[in-house]
Amino acid sequence: QVQLVESGGGLVQAGGSLRLSCAASGSIGSINVMGWYRQAPGKQRELVAIIVSGGSTSYADSVKGRFTISRDSTKNTVFLQMNSLKPEDTAVYYCNALIATISTRSYWGQGTQVTVSS
User: Fold this and answer.
1) Is the pLDDT assigned to residue 28 strictly greater than 90?
2) Please, are residues 97 and 33 in contact by the beta-carbon 8 Å criterion?
3) What is the pLDDT of residue 1?
4) How many angstroms from the chain centroid is the CA of residue 17?
């Protein structure tokens, strides 16, 4: 059984920073991709940032230059450093990982709320 556990959400004023963490645990063979998605009220879930096993990263245009995704492969953990936060960044942030165990599949965390006040 694989689990993703997120932490680090909260309430912050516009212009502030938060750091999200997501740790994968369980019967993990290898982690191919880890990433962050977000879902604001009344909107579809959208990709924020991903990092692949080789270290390459990709970001949504709306967060480029403000957010940084990183990974500690030794701890199966992914981080999202969020700077210069805006009210439109308010959403539930979900961790996602493409993990190989017996087969390769996508796993989701439970989500962590990020609220940015103006």
Assistant:
1) no
2) yes
3) 85
4) 15
Mean pLDDT, all residues of the chain: 95
C-alpha distances out from residue 91 to 19, 23, 57, 69, 83, Å? 14, 20, 21, 17, 15
Strands 91-100 and 77-82: unpaired
For residue 102, give the amino acid letter. I
64 close to 56: Cβ distance less than 8 angstroms: no
Q: Which of 66-75, 85-94, 101-110 has the lowest mean pLDDT?
A: 101-110
d(CA 98, CA 52): 9
Please name the residues in contact with 77: beta carbons below 8 A apart, sequence gap of 6 or more: 21, 22, 23, 24, 71
